[in-house]
Specification:
By secondary structure, this protein is an alpha+beta fold. Helix content is about 75%, strand content about 10%. It contains five helices and four strands; from the N terminus they run H-H-H-E-E-E-E-H-H.
């Protein structure tokens, strides 16, 4: 069933209700009074904010100081590390130089030892050579002394023999018109005859006699004689050692050759 809206009725009722509510007491007025303390809370919050800001400022200053101190420490550590690295490089360079010096000294020491060994070997060799030379010198001196003694003995006997030969030699030189010349060579004499040419008594004839090898031999003759005749005279001399007969025979050959 439909309800009909009547404006007049609605307006009247509303006005009545409003008047009635205005005259009635408020419920809020009937509630008890409560104090929340907002001012105190505001002050406390302000003090907390101030303390918190101060704490944050101190923290920032402390962090900044610690950061600066850390940076200073890092810089100092870096500088110290740089210095230590430089010292390490310097020590490494010195160590390398020292190692090279030790190696050089080792090489020089080895060379010195080798030189000492060589000199020692040379000294030993020279000492052995000196001893050998001394031994040989002593032997040579002994031989010289023996030969000198033998020569002295031979000279003594030669002088004795000469005391007997000189009269005989003088006789043959006078008898054969002959003189004897030295040749400046040991065991070689030159026999020069004069008065061999009837036409010229001053003309000379000569020959050289070599007695070096024990057996005598005629090596040079002037004037020229027959070789066979010379060999015959020399063979007789070597066989009987008759020097007077040999000289007499050679003079006869010169006289016959100059006729």
């Amino acid at each position: 069933m439909a309800t009909l809206f009547e404006p007049s009725l609605s307006s009247t009722g509303a006005m009545r209700s409003s008047v009635h509510l205005a005259d009635a007491p408020s419920r809020a007025d009937s509630l008890p009074s409560i104090s929340f303390g907002f001012d105190d809370l505001r002050d406390r919050m302000a003090r907390f904010t101030e303390k918190f800001d101060s704490f944050i400022a101190k923290g920032r200053k402390q962090v900044l100081a610690e950061r600066n101190h850390f940076r200073v420490n890092v810089a100092e550590l870096q500088e110290e590390q740089r210095v230590k690295q430089k010292n390490i490089e310097l020590l490494a360079h010195k160590s390398s130089d020292h190692a090279r010096s030790i190696e050089k000294e080792a090489v020089e020491t080895a060379e010195m030892h080798a030189a000492i060994a060589s000199i020692t070997h040379q000294r030993d060799t020279c000492a052995q050579h000196r001893d050998r030379v001394r031994t040989e010198t002593a032997a040579v001196r002994k031989q010289i002394a023996q030969r000198l003694a033998a020569q002295q003995e031979h000279a003594k006997s030669f002088d004795i023999q000469a005391s007997f030969n000189n009269p005989e030699l003088d006789f043959w030189q006078s008898y054969l018109a002959m003189r004897i010349d030295g040749m400046g060579v040991p065991d070689r004499l030159k026999f020069v005859f004069s008065h061999v040419d009837e036409k010229n008594w001053g003309r000379e004839a000569w020959f050289e006699l070599d007695m070096e090898k024990g057996d005598c031999r005629v090596i040079c003759v002037k004037p020229k004689l027959e070789p066979d005749q010379i060999k015959t005279c020399v063979r007789r001399l070597n066989e009987n050692r008759d020097l007077g007969g040999f000289l007499k025979g050679m003079r006869g050959l010169f006289i016959a050759a100059l006729k």
